[in-house]
Design a protein that fits this description.
The protein is mostly beta strands. It has one domain (about 5-310). The chain has five helices and 18 strands. The longest helix is centred in the middle third of the chain and has 9 residues, at about 185-190. Mean pLDDT is about 85; it is low at about 5-30.
Length: about 325
């Protein structure tokens, strides 16, 4: 799973699945000492098709204080539900899709007034990642607000690293095994979405939590937890100082034991908390010299994604 989708703070996925069940329910559970290869990157091919389901919620709050007095408060909440049939149009050298066509089945956005459809069923979107990222429809460029909402659930940034690079393991693992994430690669991945973090401020681990059966396939239940301090956004007022910046993410993904099959489903939560201190004169000309304000920002995203491979003949 591409970590920048967490902080999109991206990954596509889907539902023919239903809920995961422990392996013992549909087949004999593996012995406790059984080892499993941790091969997380699943290269895609041009023409590959899937049904994609994504639900996501985004919560953002911004509060400004003078001392203990709150001067202003802004709270925004958005929920998005997206279902589409996808087809890979182009890939890069390692099998990451760089251009995908999506025939939308449904897409709704709820920003407080109830779910509102963004498209009529059948609209075809094209998502291009990398050097010239874009989301366009067959009718041309999308309205700015629509494009912003779609970028919350559809990755457009360059995918320079795979899941194996960031939280994979070159050694086979038994159920319950824990190993560290690659902090250098994680810092690079988050830097691509505008969050600067030193690798030595990142603490993270991956776990092979279980072997489940999902959509009739034996699948590795991989869980990743990452925390970081010293987080700084690329975009902030020039006169603002980051007093505190923290990131916490939790991911659970189900990868078929058979590496020829795509990832089945994901669940991801990411939270970024920032405290900025800046001169009060940047807000009010009546502020006293030396007076400062404190702005607290909390951004939280949760998404559930599932994949279901589709045969071109179906």
């Amino acid at each position: 799973m591409n970590c920048r989708a967490l902080v999109a703070i991206g990954v596509v996925a889907a539902t023919a699945c239903g809920t995961a069940t422990r392996g013992a329910e549909l087949s004999a559970a593996p012995e406790a000492a059984a080892e499993f290869a941790i091969q997380l990157h699943r290269p895609v091919q041009i023409g590959e098709q899937a049904k994609q389901h994504i639900t996501a919620t985004f919560d953002h709050s911004l509060r400004t204080f003078s001392g203990q007095t709150m001067l202003s408060e802004q709270i925004n909440k958005v929920a998005i539900a997206f279902v589409a049939d996808t087809k890979v149009i182009d890939v890069d050298a390692v099998g990451i899709a760089t251009k995908t066509e999506l025939a939308v089945e449904s897409c709704t956005v709820d920003s407080g007034a109830g779910p509102m459809p963004l498209f009529s069923p059948g609209v075809v979107l094209t998502v291009t990642r990398g050097g010239d990222p874009a989301i366009v429809s067959q009718n041309g460029t999308l309205p700015r607000a629509t494009a912003q909402w779609l970028r919350m659930v559809l990755p457009t940034g360059p995918a320079t690293m795979t899941d194996d690079d960031i939280f994979g393991s070159t050694a086979p693992r038994v159920v319950g095994a824990v190993w560290p994430v690659n902090a250098d690669f994680m810092a690079n991945e988050l830097g691509a979405v505008g969050l600067r973090i030193r690798p030595d401020r990142i603490i993270g681990q991956a776990t092979l939590a279980a072997v489940d059966v999902v959509a009739g396939r034996q699948a590795l239940d991989i869980r990743v937890e990452v925390s970081a301090t010293g987080v700084e956004p690329d975009q902030k007022p020039a006169d603002a100082v980051v007093e505190r910046g923290e990131l916490h993410t939790e991911l659970t993904s189900w990868y078929p034991v058979d590496p020829s099959h795509m990832r089945l489903k994901d669940s991801a939560t990411a939270t970024v908390e920032l405290v900025l201190v800046h001169p009060a004169t940047s807000v009010s000309k009546d502020a006293k010299p030396g007076e400062t304000l404190r702005t607290e920002i909390i951004a939280r995203q949760h998404r559930e994604s599932t994949y279901a491979a589709v045969s071109p003949e179906s």
